[in-house]
Amino acid sequence: MKKFATAIITLGAVGALTLTGCSSSDRDESTAEGTESAAAGFAADATIGVALPQKTSENWVLAEQLFNDGLKEAGFTPIVQFANSGVPEQQNQISAMVEKDAKIIVVGAIDASQLGTQLDAAKAEGATILAYDRLIKNTESVDQYIAFDNFQVGVLQGTALLEGLAERKGAGPYNIELVAGSPDDANATPFFEGAMSILQPKIDDKTLTVVSGQTDFDAVATQGWKAENVQKRFDTILSANYSDGTPLHGVLSPNDTLARAVLTSVKQAGLPTPVITGQDSEVESVQSIMAGEQYSTIYKDTRELVKATIDAIKSYQKGEEPEINDTESYDNGVKIVPANLLPPQIVTKENAKEAYANDPTLSKLTG
To answer: What are 285-343's pLDDT values in tens digits?
Structure first.
């Protein structure tokens, strides 16, 4: 993937400039706070809670199975639950995990800012809190963040959009539209900011034009990551801005589900397929990529993320320090949360076979 090398190589500097920093003394203090519970250890068959959000993507469904299987194999007693009814259900689930003496609670938050009371109570009972995939905000009661590097995801998406436009639409300038994730998901902002670190300079120099004028996060966010919400929005955008023959060349989409919804709207409007990005490597979108429709996705192997989380749990159980590779980038509003970040991978038709070679499901889709 030589054409993405620059984005990947320079990401560290970009992320450091974009995300909130801290002094060395702050980092040392936050790291000590974040891993203080590691020294105690706990029983090898302890209860481990895993609070997952709604089933909005294939990766969340897979995570449920992987956590159940992996925690049982490691000798723990898992409680793995989805909160499909929303934030109150997740709050109640976390409280119930505390009552069942869960030593570690892994949280994939629905709303990153609405779990403070429950997590404070969990910490008061001695539980360790791991933020899984989504940073938990505005609470001291989070010990570690385990995720793919979400700012880098956005950088790769923005880079892929530019590469796809040049490859499929010829010389610019280009007309594009923007989509962002749900405003209550802590990941949605770094996805968008990472992408805009690449796209905004091209908007400024007129290489790219957002014809609708919708460029702010609040204007392009998609509540609940729901496909129907973005499809309705694009039905309106296309009717108002592209029904006169103005070409739509590309769309920044933060994930595969929303990318497919945009493509549905475009097809119903009878317009040519734009270059469109995605994320999650969902089966339907990988098939679309191989068919030459959706241009790109992001591969974040859920098996690796769950494994990293279970490895951290094993370290805490033994009273050892878990793996941390970032102690300064993730400010949740009240503390710098120590993080273990995994690298995401951009996937297009060009490299799909290689990217999915070790994935038992997706490798079958690449011929």
So the answer is: 999 999 999 999 999 999 999 999 999 999 999 999 999 999 998 999 999 999 999 99
Residue with tokens 């923005």: 158
Rounded Cα–Cα distance for residues 191 and 289 (Å): 21
CATH code for the domain in which residue 309 is found: 3.40.50.2300
> Does this model's pTM top 0.85?
no
Sheet of strand 144-148: strand arrangement: 77-82, 47-52, 104-107, 128-132, 144-148, 339-342
pLDDT in tens, 24-38: 333 344 344 444 444
Query: Could you tell me the residue range of the domain that residue 196 belongs to?
Result: 150-299
Number of domains in the chain: 2
Sequential DSSP letters for 186-255: TTHHHHHHHHHHHHHHHHHTTSEEETT---SHHHH--GGG-HHHHHHHHHHHHHHHTTTS----EEE-SS
- What Cα–Cα distance (Å) separates residue 63 from each residue in 68, 131, 173, 231, 300? 8, 14, 41, 27, 12
Task: Specify if 355 maps to a domain.
Answer: no
Q: Hunting for tokens 């280009």 — which residue is that?
A: 174
In a domain, 361, yes or no: no
* 77 domain-assigned: yes
Give, for 162, the enclosing helix (H) or strand (E).
helix 150-169
Sign of CA dihedral 275, 279, 284, 289: positive
| Same domain as 186, residue 323 | no
The neighbouring-strand residues paired with 208 are: 174
Please tell me whether residues 231 and 322 are part of one structural domain: no
CA atoms within 13 A on the CB side of 337: 27
| Alpha-carbon distance values, 107 to 99, 132, 302, 303, 344 (Å) | 16, 5, 15, 17, 20
